[in-house]
């Protein structure tokens, strides 16, 4: 959408910084710190916005990046998108004036946001950026459409809200949609190659169709519906195209196969070439391009990141000795880090400093400073070794006789895990049984009690803060599921005992929670854990694909609703309407669509459109819609298939493949980045105290601490690198291509294009 | 199947060679040349057979490797496999004694072949090789089964020919089945990892099924057939498993979706996790393992190849000067190459020698000798620049006035190509029209004449030998298609004009040939050519997958025929049997299977079994067979899906992906191997005269030869490296991992295991 702008953003020009004093070592002003912290946080989150460096613009830019502003923006985008629920054809119909009013409000918010952005960046940059132009065009077109539509409706004419297809494009063009724009760019870059393979595929399809026409057309065969078989060329092309999606296999082949064995060879050859070979080639082409362009983009991203850090350094630098290299003092560093990450603990900040300043000089050079952004992106868990809260609150109980016994039994790690895995298995069997049986329904309380006991025992042995640290996914998962199940079960039995009436919804929730509780079992098998962890790690990136899919689905849903709304009607189960047998449309009489009761697969509102599009993604069944409209409706479905299945799903598969390959190779090679290694060399990562999951944690306790009780000679501070988690999707992507990026190469001085030339540097 | 043996074959022990004289420079005996040429040809075709080096064993080994012996072996394997066509349930029933007799003959042939092999290799090696044991066990079991079956049939009892499932295993275990064994090994190596992902996938499936049971089982929903919906746990597990194959989408979801929108979320989540994410993870795991193990195997292959060359060198070596390095003289070299490749031209052999002996010393050292195998594997086209045959036969015509004119017009390459592309397009339209129209049917003669003219013109301009060289795929393709079409059309019109009767078969062939002729158009578009060439290049490797698929299909077909034969009957189109409506089985009354007329999808003979298995590979539709037998029949279909779709198809996709990546990276990097470069450096690859396709050839003619006529100062010999084609699949595989293999590292001396120690060397 806005590639040129995105690229140009990567190369901030080195001007507009005359206001910064750099003769001698003057006190840095608040503005300097603001500016430096913005550079650092831009580098940290890979924001590539070319903002003005005047103090006022910096303040505006800080406000622009405030989390509340972003949340509000996304909230209004969501509101704008979900207006489709209330507009004709609506799930919940609202009067036109109401939806119009809400949409106007949304447009206003987007305009304000854009105006804010225009104030932050220089005027010429603003107008050169295609994504801003895009937003302005979308806003104007929407306004025009609303006026026309309103006028038409006021005069009772037929109007189409065509601008609704533009709504999801806002998601792509807002400044925060970087990931999404990158995904679209990656698609666009792969398009030429995909196009050639697609042409070849179409050529093969046309050849096979021609052969089918010649071989089968004149034999007087009939389809199952009694229609002539393979006599119309375009019909054949379409049928064979659908065969690639496997939707009409083996139906399309049956009439020919029934007439002779030999024709099966034709279809088998077709499936081999077009379904297996060509679809693999599509994946290969998409994957290859995806990797190639992503690599290039990530490389640019890293360059931009390092350049931003160099600019931040230039703002904060001072000269310790005449003619020496510029440095940044610890005091300035501390102040800046506090601005960048207000929630950072002093201990953590000191840890980072001691990594950066490894010679304990009290100041750091440029190289160490530039690494700061990577240091900040490594999540470090800080733990103070303090006594268990229960020990302080109630020492008599905590140090009583049974306590060491509990701790000792608990430390029989494998036994504990096996016992609870067995409990989960028994629970699974009980869930499968009929819950009407009082024995079964009462057993639920026993299981709940056992799970609660497990959590309490763990809390007793571990420090609560460690147990509920941010990275203990399974601890959080367990606790939330068990507590929710407890609450839901109590409400359920309360309702049952009082009114004798059970809410279906609450029961459903109880069931879901009960089943979810069983998932825990995978965490105790090491092999499974590795796979699951990879899946959890690629989770955030899958969200980008989720947005991508929503943009495409929304556009197709809007178009589909205009084309097909009301053509197929759904009647409730208990309806006695005679039209029910053919979905309320006589064109569907006797078709497979009506017979299989697909009536609810329609475009009558945005929710059923989305569900239908998911079904179409899985299997391209569109015969019903062709029957109720026109043969040309097939174009809609073929376009959808090309866009979603051939392109987006393949990119998704490519991403999962790449993520798994990275995981596999990382497992074998050195897991930690050079910076993490540095921290470990300095022995600052004092103890591997807390692992992501309990099993490992217990292992460490076994080795280090005997009965698991706090030992006095433990260091006062403990750090643990949560190296396997990445705060941002960019960080994961960067890791994916880390092998090609030299962590020591800053490239900001020897850049041949001079893009990274820094005026403050040249004056030094 | 026989990994240990395969591996041990790679490491021939260094003994049993005491008979070879190596003191001084004695005349080499015929046995020496036989032995050396066997080593070289084993290295060339990557045969890893540890044969005895006694002269008698060498002679036997030569006979063992004779092409006729191999063809006969494969012929009898084919006969053995195709016995299934004639055995109960048969396509063409033959009496039991006839099939039994043929099978006994096959068994005899296999036994003779095995006995031959036992004579070639040392006794202890023979019994240590699992693949020999496998063949013996298969032969014995088959014999036992035949006796039991014969006895049972003689007493009119029911018997099962269970040994038929063993037949395809012969294909895997014969010495020539190296590629297939490697494919099976690669699958077996990937199994542990696939297994863990599969367990996790099954866990997810079981959890979703449990949730579905709890959420939907009690709502009293009905399927489209009126059966209770989602009330039986195992049924749910199976339905959801089939949903992963997309076969029952969206049917399985419709009852729940009809009752409430909310349940669609459940199914969408299920499809996202199990269909998209897990299937991608399967691909990732299979791909990753495939790459890893294949790399290792190819590395071992290269080591073994180099070692064999070193042994051949040891046999032929002599000492030019006292204490100097051993060398091989040109005379010995020539004699050996003639033995290895009897059809090699003198010019080609001299070219190879001049590449190996780049200092023109008359002898070559070990390093150059070891490269010989790579030199031999590079296909070189030798062309003598001689006058056009027409020029010699009929100079008056060839050098007449219109001749230069024709050559000149013909050299307007682009015009010629465009004209013929247009002709093809027009032809495509005419093919699409109704051929009953006399204008259309007569136009066929015009097109045939045009195509013939094109071929004749090309033959006129190029030397016929160059035009029909082995690598001119499209020239061959064109000529064969056009000539066959001409013959078929003539036969067709002859039959029409004489008897007025047109044979349907001949007409079909004519149609197929006409359509195939159009394929030529893709060759004139450069982008397409690249893709097509890659596809052609991976063709041979796809044959290995073809064998793999046939082995698996055959086993499943045999089992399926025993389980399901005769359960579903097919009635001809014109049959009036009332049973036709339910495929002759009352259990199928009213099922979708019978309604959709799937009756011919049955296991009633081996041909329809194979076709059905292809359909099951595409979409797993098995409800019919479950209906006619038992619910447990589903196990058969699930096993088939796991084996074929999850494992083999994924390996196929992995292979296509890898092949395309190699093509993409090779296109960008240096295309030629170090050896090919060497040939070019020596300016022995005199002219790039003949390209794989006409377009390029004409290009070169344009540049070099003016009007395309032979120029006198052309060198007498011209070589062209057909570097892009590989004689063996191994060569393609080696190219795939070429980047990791150093062409200059022979590793035969510094091997830590001492596997490559060579006694002739140590005596030097």
UniProtKB/TrEMBL annotation, chains A, B:
Keywords: Membrane, Transmembrane, Transmembrane helix. It is found in: Membrane. Residues 72-293, 421-663 form the Ion transport domain. GO terms for cellular component: membrane. The chain crosses the membrane at residues 67-86, 92-112, 133-152, 194-217, 229-249, 261-287, 414-433, 473-494, 534-556, 606-628, 635-662. The gene is tpcn3. Signal peptide: none annotated. Its main location: membrane. PANTHER family: TWO PORE CHANNEL 3, TWO-PORE CALCIUM CHANNEL 3. Pfam families: Ion_trans. InterPro entries: Ion_trans_dom (IPR005821), Volt_channel_dom_sf (IPR027359). It is a multi-pass membrane protein. Residues 1-29, 743-764 are annotated as: Disordered. Residues 743-753 have a biased composition (Acidic residues). It comes from Dicentrarchus labrax (European seabass). One of its GO terms (molecular function) is monoatomic ion channel activity. This is Ion transport domain-containing protein.
